[in-house]
Design a protein that fits this description.
The chain is built from 9 helices and 14 strands. With about 450 residues, the chain is α+β, with helices and mostly antiparallel strands. The longest helix has about 50 residues. The chain is rod-shaped and about 160 Å long. The structure holds adenosine-5'-triphosphate (ATP) and magnesium ion (MG).
Length: about 450
Amino acid sequence: MALVFSANLISSYYGNREAADSAYDRLLLASASAIAERMAVREKGLWVDIPYAALNMLASTAQDRVFYGISAPDGTVVTGYEDLPSPPSSAHVVNPSKPLFYDAVYKGAPVRVVSLRAFVIGNTLSGFASIRVAQTRGEREALALSLLKQSAIWTLVIAVSGGIAVWLGISRGLRPLDRLGEALGRRSPDDVRPVLHDVPAEFKPLVAAINSMLMRIDDGISAMRRFISDASHQLKTPLAGLQVQTEMALREKDPDNILDSLDKINVSVKRTGRLAKQLLSHARAVEPSRGFKGVDLARMARETVSLMTPQALSRGIDLGYEGVDTAIVSGDATLLGEMIMNLIDNALRYPPRGALVTLTVTSGENPVLTVDDSGPGIPPDNRKEVFERFVRLQDTPQEGCGLGLAIVQEIGTAHHARVSLEDSPSGGLRVLIEFPHAEKSVS
Ligand SMILES: Nc1ncnc2c1ncn2[C@@H]1O[C@H](COP(=O)(O)OP(=O)(O)OP(=O)(O)O)[C@@H](O)[C@H]1O
Ligand SMILES: [Mg+2]
């Protein structure tokens, strides 16, 4: 507004000057014409009788000064100021009797000049006599400024009333938003009910976005609560078992029985330790990602295979890696390691001794990690449920917490990878993890 109003004031100042000029120019011309009418050619040359009214009509309240100069057709000055500024050389006179107005500076003051040429004819001379009348610009400037003052006052009135209207409109319009903010501010941290405030149409998308976010937070909180209750339930059982075994061991007198109890306690502690580790692993997998880097999936698979080879040997399983040397995916190395570890752990745990477990990584647009085993596999009907937390197949004799595949699924989702189960050509289960395309950079 300030910019537009300033531009408006500047342009109206120049407009006012033009208007003042065109009004006062007429007076200037009337004065010059009155002088022209009183010119005559006498024996001694050009004769002029300047009427009092001709200069009096230019008298002004601003006490402008008036100058005139009259020259004969031959250029000789008849009367008045000899050095009155002449018309700018650029002024092209098409019609010599047409008056010419121009601005100049005379005796240190800006002046407006009219130059009029009048044809005189007589016995001694004939031709165009020149009349120049100049007037300082005081009155014109005063008029332009007084007009400007009026438009400035109105501009200010418009600006102030516009400002007040905008301020009132915005503060009234934003009041529902204030109320919404206060209501949200008063809520307790676990209150994730949708916002039902009536808001202007412009804010409806904002409220819809807040409600959809609240819904997702609600889902997240519910999932977290379910997980915590599941986890504490899962931990409660082995801990209760441990307590019973410890109490029994404490009551025992026979050292052999004590050793036997300690053995059982040892197994229980290991099992509980594994559960705690898997729970932690799951909690890490569901955390929002902290920025992924280029990770070499093939190298990770090879390294995990060699890390788990002793375990494979102790179970009599042939564990190996086949596939490309490098396959870059964008991801979190710790999580990816955890995922491969869980897959190998299953492949070593469920197939019988002498089984074959092969990890394969293929590169290309979408790197794929495959874990094949020659074990019993998972029937197609159960391939969905095994990804749920704490779900273990009924006829599984080996120990486990039922979290491994849930962890794999969470890590896969975090990496935008597709996790699927198939029949393996080697007879058992094939787990496929298809990664999205990643930039070929390792950091
Ligand atoms: N390679 C496999 N071959 C046959 N059955 C499998 C295989 N991998 C998983 N399963 C079945 O799927 C179930 C779920 O596996 P998951 O890894 O989620 O849990 P878990 O191995 O029982 O426990 P943990 O959390 O200790 O890994 C297993 O209990 C098992 O019945
Ligand atoms: Mg497992």
